[in-house]
């Protein structure tokens, strides 16, 4: 177990809206208070440098760049590989397409296409069939494939490493780069025990978040080659992401890497326990076998509930969740949801869905 959170009292018995809700623990705040800092725009913040070096090594890459957000890390990753007028391809549920407000088009002039993916699971045949390498006077050329692992809107789905390697082999032969949106790659690593570097080495660039399950208040890291990260540093400044004495925040990330990675297994276990309990009374709503990490997706077509109505009914009883589309509700376990909160969520949802 980790040190206790310093979160203010919440009106929620269990806040399962997102794993972005975590609050810094007392020990994390202490690490932040004592961080050695410098001006990171000038490359003079030693705590940021230590974080970047560590994450790069963990993911099997040469260099890294600290960014304010996961979306910025993803946008930098795409900008490094794709010129204006070229395209990126990703699955239709991917965060880079659904939840970054069209930033690739707005900031970089990048177009996109998508393939359908059940629960976000990577089937190599789909991106390879969609990939277009023969750019000409009428056809946009594919410059980048983005894979998300674990998959947010897919319900915490873990991407099979062999599927990734199959796509990588074909994309490399075609001269198409690959970027990993690894916001929750830590969860995939803990669930599978596959080393982070085994995932990371299959991609030209990788983004990972520190502010979701790991519990840091801010920050993501982009990794790649020394040359790519030098270019990314320039684009980060152009995108407005250069920060000054940001070692105060980077220290939270270092603390999270030391103390909050292995404990993700606790979130996975609680999510699985919830799914098993709800699945026992409403098997059409959730299949416990599909819960791979810390996210549970409730499928509502077989019920009389709409997602907004179910979210509202649960909220009235102290459980906050997220309407994830026209027929689904998402629940996400994290550092600040314990066994008691999980028990409360089970009680509420088994009652509502029975």
TrEMBL record:
Keywords: Lyase, Pyridoxal phosphate. The keyword Nucleotide-binding does not apply. The keyword Lyase applies. Pfam families: Beta_elim_lyase. This is Threonine aldolase. Its cofactor is pyridoxal 5'-phosphate. It comes from Knoellia aerolata DSM 18566. The modification N6-(pyridoxal phosphate)lysine is found at residue 212. Belongs to the threonine aldolase family. It comes from the Bacteria. GO terms for biological process: glycine biosynthetic process; L-threonine catabolic process. Signal peptide: none annotated. Residues 15-298 form the Aromatic amino acid beta-eliminating lyase/threonine aldolase domain. GO terms for cellular component: cytosol. One of its GO terms (molecular function) is L-allo-threonine aldolase activity.
């Amino acid at each position: 177990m980790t040190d206790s959170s310093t979160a203010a009292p919440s009106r929620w018995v269990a806040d399962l809206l997102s794993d972005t809700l975590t609050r810094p623990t007392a020990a994390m705040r202490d690490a932040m208070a004592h961080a050695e800092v410098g001006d990171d725009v000038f490359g003079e913040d030693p705590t940021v440098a230590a974080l970047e070096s560590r994450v790069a090594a963990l993911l099997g890459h040469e260099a890294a760049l600290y960014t304010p957000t996961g979306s910025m890390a993803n946008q930098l990753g795409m900008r490094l590989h794709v010129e204006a007028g070229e395209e990126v391809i990703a699955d239709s549920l991917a965060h880079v397409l659904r939840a970054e407000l069209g930033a690739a088009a707005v900031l970089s002039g990048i177009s996109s296409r998508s393939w359908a993916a059940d629960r976000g699971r990577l089937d190599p045949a789909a991106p390879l069939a969609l990939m277009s390498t023969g750019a000409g006077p009428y056809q946009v050329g594919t410059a980048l494939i983005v894979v998300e692992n674990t998959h947010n809107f897919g319900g915490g789905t873990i991407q099979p490493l062999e599927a990734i390697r199959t796509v990588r082999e074909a994309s490399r032969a075609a001269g198409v780069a690959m970027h990993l949106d690894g916001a929750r790659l830590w969860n995939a690593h803990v669930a599978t025990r596959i080393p982070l570097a085994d995932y990371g080495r299959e991609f030209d660039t990788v983004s990972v978040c520190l502010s979701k399950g790991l519990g840091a208040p801010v920050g993501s890291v982009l990794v790649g080659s020394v040359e790519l990260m030098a270019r990314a540093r320039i684009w980060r400044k152009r995108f407005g992401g250069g920060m000054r004495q940001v070692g105060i925040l980077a220290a939270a990330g270092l603390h999270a890497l030391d103390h909050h990675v292995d404990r993700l297994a606790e979130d996975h276990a609680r999510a699985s326990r919830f799914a098993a309990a709800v699945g026992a009374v409403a098997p059409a709503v959730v299949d416990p076998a599909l819960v791979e990490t810390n996210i549970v997706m409730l499928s509502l077509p077989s019920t009389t509930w709409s997602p907004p109505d179910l979210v509202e009914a649960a909220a009235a009883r102290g459980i906050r969740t997220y309407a994830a589309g026209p027929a689904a509700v998402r629940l996400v376990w994290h550092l600040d949801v314990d066994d008691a909160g999980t028990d409360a969520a089970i009680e509420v949802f088994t009652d509502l869905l029975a």
